Amino acid sequence: MSGRNRGPPPIPMKGPPHAGLLPPVHEHPYARGLGPMPPHPVLLDEIREPQFVLGPRGFPPHPAIIEERLGVQLQEVQALLADNQRLAATHVALKQELEAAQHELKQMSHYADSLRAEKDVQMREMYEKSVRLEADLRELEAMRAELVKVNGDIKQLSAVKQDLTGQVQVMSQDLTRLTGELQQAPVLKAEIENLKQELQRAR
């Protein structure tokens, strides 16, 4: 009678002495002090899958199979956690790079504004200088026109001078001739007096 109630013999276990138990899961660093972490949703989904349903005789799968499957799932969870940590680190790095880029963009914007203001000042100075140069150029053109007029007047005066010089030479010659004639005037006067006396004697 006692042999009938013993049930089926135990199935031999493979693996280390603690086979059949889940390997220890390290607590997530962000969950310290919050108690044990709840099962990962992936584990819950896997547990709900048909692979853990009872067999045709109503017995659960072998513990070694369950352990192996849970180990695979644990590795997948740890890989997901590592991926999440890498994504979080990447997110932080990208955020820092974005902040640095925004800061650099702000500095470049300030630098561009200062350059634009400096360029405006330089353009204003160049415009004022061009206005002064144009005024100086107009004055220079007026002086050039005046110089051309003066040169024309000088040429005209030179022609007048040459004409006057010729007239002076003619007048000098006439004066010389008249001076000679004036020097001969007493002789002519004496001859005229002699002619008058001879006319009177002839009468």
From TrEMBL:
User: What biological processes does GO assign it?
Assistant: cell differentiation; flower development
Which stretches are annotated as coiled coil? 84-198
Q: Identify the stretch(es) annotated as Disordered.
A: 1-28
Return the InterPro entries for the record. FLX/FLX-like (IPR040353)
Coiled coil: present as a keyword of the record? Answer: yes
The UniProt keywords, alphabetically, are: Coiled coil, Developmental protein, Differentiation, Flowering
- Family that this chain belongs to: Belongs to the FLX family.
Q: What is this protein called?
A: Uncharacterized protein
The protein's organism comes out as Gossypium laxum
Q: What is the lineage of its organism?
A: Eukaryota, Viridiplantae, Streptophyta, Embryophyta, Tracheophyta
